[in-house]
Amino acid sequence: MAKTMTEPERSNETTVYADGGAIRSPLKMAWRKLRRHKLAMAGMWVLIVLHIFAIFADFFAPYSEVTTDRRRTHHAPTRVHIISPEGKLTRPFIYGYDRVDTMRNIYEENHDVVYPIRFFVRGDKYKVLGFESNLRLFGVDAPGKIYLFGADRYGRDIFSRLAYGGKRSLFIGIIGLAISMSIGLVYGGISGYFGGWVDNVMMRVAEVIISIPSFYLLLALSAVLPPSLGSTERFMMITVILAFISWAGLARVIRGMVLSIRQQDFVTAAEAVGCSQPRTILRHILPNTMSYIIVNATLGIPGFILSEAGLSLIGVGIQHPDASWGNMLSEALNLTSLTRYPWLLVPGFIIFITVLSYSFFGDGIRDAFDPRAQT
Amino acid sequence: MFRYIVRRFLYIIPMLLGISSLSFFIMQLAPGDALTTMVLSPDISEEVVNAMRARFWLDQPPHMQYIRWIQRLFAGDMGHSFLWHAPVTWVIKQRLLNSLLLTVVSTALAWLIAIPIGIHSAVNQYSWSDKLLTFVAFIGVAIPNWFLGLLLLYFTVSRGWGFPVGGMTSIDFADFTFWEQVVDLGRHMFLPVLVLTTGSVASLMRYMRSNLLDVLRQDYVTTARAKGLSRRVVIYKHAVRNAINPLITIFGYQLGALLSGAALTEIVMNWPGIGSLMLNAVQGKDYYLVMGNLLIGSVMLIFGNLVADILLAVSDPRIRYE
Amino acid sequence: MKRRIFVLTLLVALLVSVGVASAVELLDPRVLDIEGDLGGSIGRYGGTMTVAGGASGPKTYNPHRAAETSSTDVTDRIFEGLVTLHRDTGLVMPKLAREYEISEDGTEIIFHLRRGVQWHDGVEFTADDVIFTFDVVYDVNVGSNSRSGLLIDGQPMQYEKIDDYTVKFTLPRPHAPIMFSIGTNIVPEHLLGDAFREGRYHEMWGLETDASEIVGTGAWRLSSYRIDQELVLVRNDNYYEFDTEGNRLPYLNRVIFRYYASTDTSTLAFFNGEFDYIGIPANQYPEYLDREPLSRWTIIEAGPNPGTTFIVLNQNPTTLPEPKLSWFSDVNFRQALAHAVDKETILDMAMNGKGYIQHSPINMRNAFFLKDDLKTYAYDLDEAHRKLEAAGYPLGADGVRRDSQGNPIEFDLITNPGVPIRQISGELFQEDLAALGIKVNFQLIDFNVVVEKLTSTFDWDAILIGLTGTFDPNGGSNTWLSSGNLHMWNPLQESPYTEWEAQIDEIWRAAQRAMDPEVRREYYYQFQDIVAEQVPLFYTVASENMVAVRDHLMNATPDLVSGSVGTAWNFIWIDR
């Protein structure tokens, strides 16, 4: 947003000397710099953990995202004990809970019922990479239920839903960014390379999209989604919508960069030796925008995650019973939940941590790619 | 320069045609219209609804509706709002100032706070205060405005902070003296302005910091220092000026977003602005109200960009527009 | 701004003086027996009451353009009808009319108007205003909400002015429920007549109109409105109602509506002391309950909400494909599924247990017509299973239930997002039917689409939706008559498709003609039995209407007809 075509001299300085082959060594240099950036590394590790947690949700989550329990609505987080009633250290276990106040949904431990936490248990079935399995990291024997982060209104496990929701919330950012990035790259590349009236028309079209307030556009577009969409289709459509409103700004920046790179000698040289136009754009010009793209990508993903959360918050994003961090959080955004079931806010904090990690990581990356930054 | 500005202004017309036709098309994709929900009311017969459809041209094909809307737009009429039974211009006028008040105040505050902090942070890079401020800024950027707004609302009540939890003025506002009115308005604005300012201070401060750091690394700064100019003079007379220049683009962007930027916060914090109006309009398929809002929002954005470019050219002699 | 206020004051002053100059003598005051009939107390004058007005304010001041409750909440204070319903008994009471007579055969109604009633601008209210109002209501281009209730078999009534204070209505046939809709808001001919005759009625009295131009006969005059923030009503000093001690009503000086976009903020505002009373959303009940002992306000439980929430299976022979049509039109199938609606849990999850399980289409507040020994369908999956087996829908070894042709039973259930009870009911129903081997695809769909499917394209399997209730059973006409457009499972039939629908049509029409309430009740009892047997709709639950009222607010009790405090405004007073 801050960088526009009016200040290209900064961005191309990094790439003046770099042709297609020399890109590797700056990457290595950047990595070395990045490793010294403590916050960035912390952010990176948090992100890695979160993504693994989401990808293998089926394994980490004790229950499936849709498993309800109508007698355990808004169940408080179960306390995990490691000290037995006799005062001895023992394997982790939980007590059974009784619902002592049905109006206020207050649950109390019943010390007569003990459920040891078992590891590598057989639970709800799932499919991963074509294999069917029901192996889950941990769980307790029925009729006990373990709710590490409490339960929502339907008695669904928040911890499990966080894992499954992460599949959507985390990857909506990555996929959305990939889409908007590819459109922006190709669009901006073509526009900047050809210049003239092609550039003029293409940029005006992009500006039309930029000039519509994005929240309004988002609202209007999400009202269009056909009702009969399955959950995967809906996820993809929302990703596409988010990508649709964000590609144009990117295209404009890329175009500005391409415009200035085109003036460089090596491009003229490539054209002189007879490289075809698409080849010139793809092989010689776009790689030079690489560092900008990597930085932009890490800083751009949180925007997608927040947009999805915002959409789900007003009820037009991912729909129940599918979990996404946004729609899980929307359950928390009312007075009663805030005061009585504060564990419903956990998805909000996870969003916050994710965005924060991306910011730290992105910031580190930016410094790492900036040849003048001294760390 | 002058020719450039004229040309940019001329661009606005086809741009607006593009924006309006695109958004009209999107609106039409959504099923149903503003009167669909009336059908379910046991009190309203179908023939009444049909009569209303005909009156508002809803029974015409979309392109005819669009052409008719454009025609009337040139006559200064933005159409009729179904939800409000009133002209769109009138409806928007009711909210426009409210939104502007909120965004102008919070934007101004954000700049006043962020620039000094950003400078301080850059000048004292890697000091503990820089680290703290940078960390806080990261958090400020990472917390969505709506989330912060809700948390503030909740604490206001549970901790008895004494701020009103929504609305813009008190009941007896009209009877207050001028100063009482200012105080009352201030009390109502405090929480939403706090939320909006926090988010924008955080990002502005980070931009200011990194721009200034960039400038401080430039050769001319080293040269100036080498020539014996004091650090203070170099930083505040030369470096800061050059570091602020790129921020002008952000200023233009914020200028453009004055009307639409605070929408979600307005909704969450119950501020009677354009944001909640727009949400209801989209949900109620109030086409012309949506179009009106979009159009005004877009004009603001385009205009903001234009202002940014002009300011940039004025402040930075290296930039030339053909 | 200053200047405008000045002009306004000048205008108000002018109006007041005009009012005094042309003062009409009030010959027929209306006396409220507050202590006896209404169970309240004689009050003292003065004070301002502030109430929560919901998420948004009125969209128009024109009572015959107002479609949404946010508008009618306001217009119903400023305007009034010839008759009104008694707030506790629901009986028809004279209002702008002093009295009315219905002829023996029920086809003629004569209203004698109160003499000396003034519009807010001082002009006298006469029969011309009544005639004008009915001209307006019957004009299809105006689109008044009252129109369909005032048509009898699609025909308007005849109405004529006998003299300045007498109006006669002639009905095409006897129609008992007409008295529940004839009390439509009367509008002033002297201010709106010209606009109506020029075809501009629908443009009149939108929000851009200056408050002082809005003129009714009601106890409250519009004073100011800041859009979606607050609306101020002031006392009509020339109102025609008195208490038994001869004090002119209302007692309060002002009433202010405050609007907050979310119920959370209005609840917080109430706790902050901004409102004098507020309707409690069922899901926030615990918040109020826990604070009540520490606060100077009291929660009043005001009986079931008149609205309904239900699941309906499509039975439309022209749009629903086989084999779904055979399943859904099989009464045994419907009865079995009715046992799979877990009403208790819905009540528990959606409204903290504060509500009522619903069995009958009759408004639960109207105890007179509600039959209590109906056939009901308790939540019992075993019973549902047994009934399905018996009706020829066996559960296979693979856990899938099939019909006699071997088709696996599966259908879509849709509802609109944003209404927790619908979402909860749907998810539970889906889960319970899964346990019965029936696959339900539950989806949340934009409200407009649901309505479009329901009323024009008819391409749906099952819908979960609700209707607002009317006090008199006849308000359900377009749902229960087979020709009705909200006869959802098979609407707009030219002649009844099934025998039981024909029976309901017949009973319904007979009930309309029956002028004796006891006889009408008999018909509605029969109707309820048929519906309970055929279960075209699976009713769920209705929430408890609850109000929190500050202790200094006297006489502010919810009425029995709708559970609303609004009907008590004219005799609410503040005890300091």
Could you explain the architecture of this structure?
The complex is a heterotrimer of chains A (375), B (322) and C (576). Helix content of chain A is 56%, strand content 13%. Chain A is of the alpha+beta class and 375 residues long. Chain A folds into 2 domains: 258 residues, MetI-like (MetI-like fold); 70 residues, no CATH class. Chain A has a 3-stranded antiparallel β-sheet with strand order 1-2-3, with no helix packed on it. Chain A has a two-stranded antiparallel ribbon with strand order 4-5. In chain A, a hairpin with a 5-residue loop joins strand 1 and strand 2. The longest helix of chain A is centred in the middle third of the chain and has 37 residues. Chain A is elongated, with a radius of gyration of 25 Å. The N terminus of chain A is likely disordered. Chain B has 322 residues and is mostly helical. Chain B folds into 2 domains: 46 residues, no CATH class; 223 residues, MetI-like fold (Orthogonal Bundle). Chain B is 72% helix and 1% strand. Chain B has a two-stranded antiparallel ribbon. In chain B, helix 10 packs antiparallel against helix 13. The mean pLDDT of chain B is 81. Chain C is an alpha+beta fold. Chain C has 2 domains: 265 residues, D-Maltodextrin-Binding Protein, domain 2, CATH 3.40.190.10; 236 residues, Dipeptide-binding Protein, domain 3, CATH 3.10.105.10. Chain C contains 16 helices and 23 strands. The longest helix of chain C has 20 residues. Chain C is globular. Classes of the chains: A alpha+beta (375), B mainly alpha (322), C alpha+beta (576).
Structural class of chain A: alpha+beta
Count of individual beta strands of chain C? 23
* CATH topology group of the largest domain in chain C: D-Maltodextrin-Binding Protein, domain 2
Q: In which order are the strands of the major sheet of chain C placed?
A: 18-17-19-15-20
The CATH architecture designation of the largest domain in chain A is Orthogonal Bundle
Chain oligomer state: heterotrimer
CATH class of the largest domain in chain A: Mainly Alpha
What's the number of domains of chain A?
2
Net shape of chain A: elongated
Structural class of chain C, please?
alpha+beta
- Radius of gyration based on Cα positions of chain C: 26 Å
CATH topology of the largest domain in chain A: MetI-like fold
Question: Mind describing the biggest β-sheet of chain A?
Answer: 3 strands, antiparallel
Please report the distance between the alpha carbons of the first and last residues of chain A.
25 Å
Query: How many structural domains in the coordinates of chain C?
Result: 2
Described by strand count, sense and barrel closure, the largest sheet of chain C is:
5 strands, mixed
Low-confidence stretches of chain C: 1-22
Helix content of chain C: 25-40%
What is the helical fraction of chain A, as a range of percent?
55-70%
> What is the first-to-last residue Cα distance of chain C?
34 Å
> How do the helices and strands follow one another from N- to C-terminus of chain A?
HHHHEEEEEHHHHHHHHHH
